[in-house]
Predict the structure.
Amino acid sequence: MTGEVLRILLLILQLGFLGLLYLILFNFARSLLRDLRTAEVTQLASQSGIGRLAVLESVADDPGTGNTIALGPINSIGRNVNSTIFIDDDFVSGTHAMLTFRGRSWFIEDQGSTNGTYVNGHRIDRAVALSFGDEVTIGRARMRLER
Amino acid sequence: MRAVARPVELRLLLPLVILVPLGFAVTHIAQTGLPEPGPMAIAIGYVGLVLAAHLALRLLGNRGDQLLLPAAATVGGIGIVMLNRLPQDLLGTDVFGVQMGMATTQLLWFGVGLGAMVLVADRFRDDGILRHYKYTWALAGTALLIVTFLFGREVNGARLWIFVGPVGFQPGEAIKIVLVIFIAGYLAEKRTLLAGASVRLGRLRFPPLPYLLPMVVIFVIVMLIVVVSRDLGTALLFLGIFLTMLFVATGRRSYVLLGLVLFVAGSLVAYNLFGHVRVRVDNWIDPFADPSGTGYQTVQALYAFGRGGLFGEGLGQGLPMIGGHLPIPALPTDFIFAAVAEELGLIGAVALLGVVTVLVFRGLRTAILARDDFSAMLAVGLTVSLGLQTIIIAAGNVKLVPLTGITFPFLSYGGSSLLASFVVVGLLLAISHRSAIDAQAEGRAA
């Protein structure tokens, strides 16, 4: 084989390498675009709002462990059946706590309950700002604030 | 734990089965002039490892982002082609009497890194371990840094290595991750306080210092140790990560402004205080002032970019050796981007940066989709660490910023860097897995 042929072979292989690299890049771009389109659709489908509570642990059936509760801007939590978030547990007071969305953050305030409201294991004595991921314990129900 | 299909990932990985061996063949033909593919063991080993990692993620039922692994593996594939094409005795290790070349060593670290990625993606699905022990993590990281500073081995004027028997490790890479975990945990806990309160002094608003103090103290300690051990690139990287995370957590431009002012002041002090900083900056302003001395590497890198031009010299056809020596001693680590640009040209270098961009894009997407603040902050910090590291070293290569010795993620030679980068991908996989599971549960409930 002459040097000339080898050079041409090398050039072809070289171009093949670059071409393949751009094919990979094109594949990435296609996956990204497809993902963006589906994301748009799912976002339209679930105008999910401002947050939700995931129930991590609960002795009651209402709410049961593993449930998620969609939140409005103002939520009362308690054993009173008229509460926005009704917890069927003897350790929970009638009107136990208020969970509200003000400005850009969530706040929780105890409403003079007997057994107290806990945020990440600490009992609160005033309105406390919550971050997404914080755990709220009311009675024997342990819940996590999520977006 | 049920096995899942990851079809997008598989489809994106398949071209690598051809790309890497093709790269090996091209360099072999170009270097020997023989029309044969040459030895393929390392190329096949690499592709095999990546596919094995894909399979492991499937079997473990990971529903995390499917573009992360292919993006990392593509950059890594180009890296191993470049490393295999350089003289093998250049760098390499001698493990228990077995002498291994540079590409073989790198392949071994790819195995370790991919294994760690799969393990982390599976083990850290629940982020409690990371979140609750943030001070322990910070303390462990700082302790490791101090141990390195006191007992580490000095390589190239910086004491960054710890040796356990024959295996060396750079703790700086691990500390990068630990620091991100700590800052994410801290900011997620204090986010509402930080965003709300501020101290007003006249017309200026300052961050509420008491809330920030614990984090700032730990950060300053880390920065001091890093700067004193002359690891400038890492210092710059840490600062960038810190400011970005602070900005993301609070949405306050004033924090970033304050950080940048501190950075400029610190840079001026460092320039006047440390000789090695002055050398780096002077080389950046005019490397041709001392082209065969301190400016040598930068000048050679610029020549490499120039020779590469638009389409490159061709794989295996660059000028790796002048008179039996590499023109750039740190070619496999700090200057590998220059080598890629020389042989694949501007279009190759742009494609490479494009793939890194995909990685960053998906990392930030993981952050947006995360269900809680800690996961979101963690994903942002980890992603920024990869992206910023790429920018700092690539910009250093083309003389856009002063050169600092850090690695190009997944591309450069080096075990610690590879391992750390793959752990980052593993954590991102774990976070995106959690949000995918949550979204699915929500869909079923609705």
